[in-house]
Design brief:
The protein is globular. The protein is α+β, with helices and mostly antiparallel strands and about 140 residues long. It has 3 helices and 6 strands; from the N terminus they run ααββαββββ.
Length: about 140
């Protein structure tokens, strides 16, 4: 059984997630897991994982998690606010982000995302607020 819902396979993942090599492993309304390589695409000029790449991974996880919860025919979910604490440098390999919702309301969701290295050490912790907006037209 796939850890990804059928609707996910119908979405062509493009843009920043594709550019950064983000891969979705698990996607449910209660948990989202994705990986991202630490390589030339995601490192800053001094050779360590770029904080912006970590934030992009965190928001990608929160965004897909939010979409898994809402009525996709009527609503869209968009990032409204994100913060991140970068706790440990990462030079290479892969990081894994795990996101869980801490608040699911009619017009907003708040997600907590932990990004860890291969040994399970915390690299970054983030919180992302998603706005749930009714589609127009």
């Amino acid at each position: 059984m796939s850890a990804l819902p059928d609707w996910y396979h119908a979405v062509e993942v493009t843009g920043l997630p594709k550019t950064l090599g983000i891969e979705m492993l698990e996607l449910t309304p209660s948990r989202v897991v994705a990986t991202m390589p630490v390589d030339q695409r995601t490192r800053q000029p001094f050779g360590i994982l770029h904080g912006g790449a970590s934030v992009a991974l965190a928001e990608t996880v929160a965004s897909f998690g939010a979409v898994a919860i809402i009525d996709r025919e009527r609503f869209v979910a968009v990032g409204q606010e994100i913060n991140a604490n970068h706790l440990r440098p990462k030079l290479d390999g892969v990081v894994t982000a795990t996101g869980v919702p801490v608040h699911v309301g009619r017009s907003s969701q708040v997600w907590s995302i932990e990004i860890r290295d291969e040994q399970g050490k915390l690299v970054c912790i983030s919180r992302c607020t998603m706005a749930v907006v009714e589609k127009k037209g």
